[in-house]
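Message: A physicist's question: would you kindly supply an amino acid chain plus fold tokens?
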Amino acid sequence: MSRTFSYCRVSTVDQTTENQIQEIQGAGFAIEPNRVIEETVSGSVPASERKGFIKLLERMESGDVLVVTKLDRLGRNAMDVRSTVELLSSKGIRVHCLALGGVDLTSPAGKMTMSVIAAVAEFERDLLIERTQAGLSRARAEGKTLGRPVKTNSIDVKILKDQGYSQAQVADQLGVSISTIKRLWKAKEGAGA
């Protein structure tokens, strides 16, 4: 007999899954409270690394149905969502997404929907990379310095070192981390200074 579960996720502790639960109930799914998995975890964490989702996978069996309100509840991006849906499908678990009209993502129509979403996500990622590269090229052509701003240099470190300051004292004087000073300190020693 098929059982129905829901996975409801929010990103921060000041958010609640109540709206997701109500939306699922409003769509006609009567899910027993012990089959509602609620989790507070960033969407940037892959589903395979989420404690609540792992617990859900351990409880579900072939023939069960998983209901989510939106695809982003299942993964951090289209590729993660796709692999999560494929994992569930390989276990015989059907996945319904309310935001896509309740389509079963493991059905032929659902697989086509997932393919389109993955293609669009890849296209958007490629456009972002292209725009970023164009912006960096333009900035270089305009003579702009790229990267993090330089807070200090090895000359400043050498002057204070020659005055007898310790690495920690140099870091305090220049307002930078001790690791930055150690790196510049070693660079000066390696250069024979």
The CA atoms of residues 160 and 166 lie 8 Å apart.
